[in-house]
Design a protein that fits this description.
Blueprint (H helix, E strand, L loop, with lengths): L1 H30 L6 H19 L2 H9 L1 H6 L5 H16 L4 H24 L2 H20 L9 H7 L5 H23 L15 H15 L6 E5 L5 E5 L2 E6 L6 H18 L17 H15 L3 H14 L1 H4 L4 H8 L13 H20 L7 H13 L25 H20 L3 H6 L4 H10 L9 H9 L6 H15 L2
Parallel strand pairs: 1-3
Antiparallel strand pairs: 2-3
Length: 500
């Protein structure tokens, strides 16, 4: 049996190696590749993804999983070996439902979609992106059909990003969350408006980049194992526990875009670099889910980066870097400014109180895409109507509206709910770790983040994909993903900021 399991692990290694190669191709596309290289790159990525798919669904893999059943039953069900078999079997069972032809078409659609979205956004031309979006939506509909019967047609797409989560589960959570956040926003609107114009003035790009690097280095971002570049939309690509890539973008007239975006992506990267080395070159060397991934990025961005304790340490350094912008702005004013609640058109720049409304809007649209009740050509009108309904705003252009996010061009329909779920999970984890690190706030005030990162490494990162997300949430916090800790957090924080 040992020889069979070693053969199984070798196949796992090969699949993971090819998946990482494909990830590197995708990173290069968004960071370095010239625009005209999209079709050629699409063929390469199509070939690699087809190879990965064929290896995963091969009769050899199926037979190994069958022959390993007795061995699996003899193991502790929580052992690394048992979990590797379980996770691989789950992936095998999912991928055997999907045709290799579909995998190839989807890979090409993703590659062309990404490049043409970039061009369409730059030109503020939704029609340029439309045929690529239509192709992606059609392919995602086909994908859902591979998984009949389902409780809801959106379930198979959501499951790719949040294993075990159902559309009904997300709707139930959002049904609890939305009225609480709307009530909070209404209460805030009755208070005096916070001034934060000092954030929306000229900040030299070079200084923004350098300050962002200074911050994430202090948080624990290791440039011997990671790098940062620039891209149209910030993203993270983890390749292995010694190589994670992040990107950022800089708005020369708003400091928050680059700074908080850099902290967000650093959170993703530090998760990627924290998987157990024992899981290297296996399917376990991945995040438990995208909600867990977003819990890490949103935690560093918001619970740390928008906290008063964080700025007690960093604000003098920030003032020294940008004396003409904030030299005469006191810490309290600055802290309130970065936490101002004000609906914005751009999701990644949204404050914590309104951010989840952006996600709920996108979830509604994605479900209607897949159900067939919303056609891609009608998306700009639908988007603008929902933005007005949810946030009281009207986009002046598609570039600041329906074209702002990269996800649909990459085929990531099913991803958006995990941002809101990650927000909830970040606070659940924070409540737990704060109890175990009682002087955490004092440590952050002194610029010490080692204990925080160590706790996350030991309790979250090291497990990789070993446990399903709700299972891991229970192991760490004692409950599945729960909206109430996040609601309490928002109410406490913004009651203090606004004097509610």
């Amino acid at each position: 049996m040992d020889s069979l399991f070693e053969k199984f692990k070798k196949k796992n290694n090969q699949i993971t190696d090819l998946t990482q190669a494909n990830g590197l191709l995708g990173w290069d596309q968004q960071v370095n590749m010239p625009l005209d290289g999209a079709e050629g790159r699409g063929h390469v990525m199509q070939t690699v993804q087809e190879l990965v798919h064929d290896m995963m669904i091969s009769s050899e893999m199926g037979q190994m999983l069958e022959d390993l059943k007795d061995f699996e039953r003899s193991l502790d069900p929580d052992s690394d070996d048992a979990r590797l078999i379980k996770v691989t079997r789950r992936e095998y069972e999912k991928q055997t439902r999907v045709s290799t032809q579909w995998v190839g078409e989807y890979a090409m659609a993703q590659t062309l979609g990404q490049t043409n979205w970039e061009q369409a956004k730059a030109a503020n031309d939704f029609k340029k992106f439309l045929p690529y979006l239509e192709k992606i939506i059609e392919l995602k509909k086909q994908y859902a059909e591979f998984f009949k019967p389902y409780d809801h047609v959106y379930d198979p797409l959501l499951d790719d990003f949040e294993p075990g989560m159902k559309t009904a589960d997300v709707k139930t959570i959002f049904k609890t969350l939305r009225p609480k956040q709307v009530d909070l926003i209404k209460a805030i609107r009755e208070k005096p408006v916070i001034e934060n114009g000092f954030l929306h003035i000229e900040y030299p790009e070079k200084d923004q980049m350098e300050f962002g690097v200074e911050v994430i280095k202090k948080l624990g971002f290791d440039f011997n194992k990671a790098r940062q570049d620039r891209s149209v939309h910030p993203f993270t690509q983890g390749l292995n526990v010694g190589d994670a890539r992040i990107t950022t973008r800089i708005d020369p007239k708003y400091i928050g875009t680059g700074l908080f975006g850099t902290m967000h992506e650093a959170g993703h990267a530090m998760y990627e670099l924290g998987y157990s080395p024992k899981f290297a070159r296996t399917l376990l060397s991945n995040g438990a889910s995208y909600a867990f991934h977003e819990s890490q990025s949103r935690m560093w961005e918001n619970l740390v980066g928008r906290s008063l304790a964080f700025w007690k340490y960093f604000y003098p350094k920030f003032q020294a870097r940008f004396p003409s912008q904030v030299g005469n702005i006191d810490l309290k004013t600055f802290y309130k400014g970065i936490n101002k609640v004000e609906p914005t058109l751009i999701r990644v720049e949204a404050d914590e109180a309104t951010y989840n409304l952006h996600i709920m809007l996108r979830l509604e649209i994605e479900i209607e895409f897949i159900e067939g009740s919303l056609m891609a050509k009608d998306l700009p009108e639908a988007w603008n109507t929902r933005i007005k309904e949810y946030l009281g705003l009207t986009p002046p252009s598609d570039a600041k509206g329906v074209l702002q996010d990269v996800h649909w061009s990459n085929g990531y329909i099913g991803y958006f709910p995990t941002y809101a779920l990650g927000n909830l999970l970040s606070v659940q984890l924070w409540e737990k770790l704060s109890g175990e690190i009682p002087d955490l706030e004092q440590q952050i005030e002194k610029g010490e983040f080692g204990a925080l990162l160590s706790w996350l490494r030991s309790n979250v990162h090291v497990h990789g994909m070993k446990f399903e997300p709700q299972e891991l949430s229970r192991k760490i916090t004692g409950s599945p993903i729960d909206p109430y800790p996040y609601i309490r957090y928002l109410e406490k924080k913004f009651s203090a900021v606004y004097g509610i």
